[in-house]
Amino acid sequence: MDKPADDPKRAPLPATCPDARHDQAAGPPPDPASTDLPAPGAAGDDALFQATLDRLDARQDCWIFAYASLLWRPEFEASEVRRARLWGWHRALEMRSRINRGTHAQPGLVFALVAGGSCVGQVLRLPRERAPAELRRLWLREMPGGGVYTPRWLRCDCAEGPVQALAFTLARSHPSYTGVLGEAQLERILRQARGRYGSTLDYLLQTADRLDALGIRDRKLAQVARLGRRIAAELAAPDDRDASGTPLPAPPQRG
After folding, report:
1. Is-contact 112 123, C-beta < 8 A?
2. Count of CA atoms in the C-beta half-sphere (13 A) of 180
3. How far apart are CA 9 and CA 76, in angstroms?
4. Tell me, what's the pLDDT at 175?
5. What is the CA radius of gyration of the chain?
6. What is the C-alpha to C-alpha distance for residues 123 and 63, in angstroms, rounded to an integer?
7. Model pLDDT for residues 107-156, shown as the tens digit of each residue
8. Could you tell me the pTM of the whole model?
């Protein structure tokens, strides 16, 4: 599983990490062999979890691809961490969150892997003897209520060689896929949405800060993070705006 990569389109990462591109024409397409798991919610949470677990070679350690909150709040202690590039998918803040970072009344947003381009993150190694129990804990976090993500075992390229890792992807056909949101709509969500794990704004900024610390450049995320940091600064300032972020009228001047 850890043999050197021999595909020129999937060369191992160099010591310094390149940009995480968002050109959806770039890179190989998603691996069709990884698409035959039951759809989320189609056969029940347990059936999808078991089908995902059955795809893991019990003789090998398990790898998890981390690209957002797993970078800064992993659900388990990894025995090894490697920088990795996943081809055919890119990181996008384009999935509605009605539990973890929002509610049904005010959905938030979380990152997902959407088809096209590539994504630089990390792969986290989970020893095989701990895999079933630890994956169940991770599942409860990432797939609440049957989940929205489509879990896939995908090839990730590392400087040490390729590994097959579990990645949580999102189909554009899913009702929770938002597509690219306008800035006004995105700003409203960042100001208002909050779920069981906190706000969408905190989630965005913690992910951006962790990517910066790791030296992973993601230009699309950086653009959204600039908006998020402006909002965070305004929310921390004296209360001169209403809940939607609209400036309150100035108090009348006293003569």
Report:
1. no
2. 5
3. 32
4. 93
5. 20
6. 6
7. 999 999 999 999 999 999 999 899 888 888 888 888 876 678 899 999 99
8. 0.75
Residue 164 structure tokens: 């097959």
Which string of DSSP letters, residue by residue, matches the chain?
Answer: --PPP--GGGPPP-SS-------TTSSPPP-GGG--SPPTTTS-HHHHHHHHHHTS-TTS-EEEEESSHHHHS-SS--SEEEEEEEEEEEEEEEEEESSSS--SSS-EEEEEEEEEEEEEEEEEEE-GGGHHHHHHHHHHHHSGGG-S-EEEEEEEE-TT--EEEEEEE--TTSTTB--SPPHHHHHHHHHH-EETTEEHHHHHHHHHHHHHHHT---HHHHHHHHHHHHHHHHHHS-S-B-TTSPBPPPPPPP-
The string of pLDDT tens digits covering residues 149-206 is 899 999 999 999 999 999 999 999 999 999 999 999 999 999 999 999 999 999 999 9
Q: Residue 58 pLDDT > 70, yes or no?
A: yes
CA pair distance 56, 131, nearest whole angstrom: 9
